[in-house]
């Protein structure tokens, strides 16, 4: 039997090779879904703030930074879309798991990769938002 522990102490996915017992991390899936929704909403809000700021006169360096942020926001949209797809696929796969040990190990490995991706998105998105807020405050666009 092997177990994977998720962020909450009671969220485990446990597998037993003879009698498969799995407690899927439904609260974790819900938390990840909510986090992706929040990042999507916040990313849209930041893109709208950038568009509003660029309606004012823009210098060369400001334009370069605005393009950088626009690129980053578009990249975040893509990452969020991929993570949503992966999350849906993992939730669907969780309902079809069999007792096969190789399949279980792959499922756990994919869950860990999904968890790492969402954790990275969260951390990187906070950094980007802070940089963007600083950019707007320095340029007096807020």
Structural write-up:
By secondary structure, this protein is mostly helical. It has one domain (26-139). 73% of the residues lie in helices and 6% in strands. It is built from three helices and two strands; from the N terminus they run E-E-H-H-H. It has helices at residues 26-54, 60-95, 101-139, and strands at 2-5, 12-15. The chain has a two-stranded antiparallel sheet. Helix 1 packs parallel to helix 3. The longest helix has 39 residues, at 101-139. The protein is elongated and about 65 Å long. The model is unreliable at 1-23 (pLDDT under 50).
Distance between the termini: 54 Å
Low-pLDDT runs: 1-23
* Percent of residues in helices: over 70%
Read across the widest sheet, the strand sequence of neighbours is 1-2
Query: Which structural category fits the helices and strands?
Result: mainly alpha
- Total number of strands: 2
Q: What's the story with the biggest beta sheet?
A: 2 strands, antiparallel
> What is the number of independent domains?
1
Helix count equals 3
Q: What share of the residues does DSSP label as strand, in percent? A: 5-15%
Whole-number mean pLDDT: 81
Instruction: Tell me, briefly, the overall form.
Output: elongated
The Cα radius of gyration reads 20 Å
Elements, N to C (H/E): EEHHH
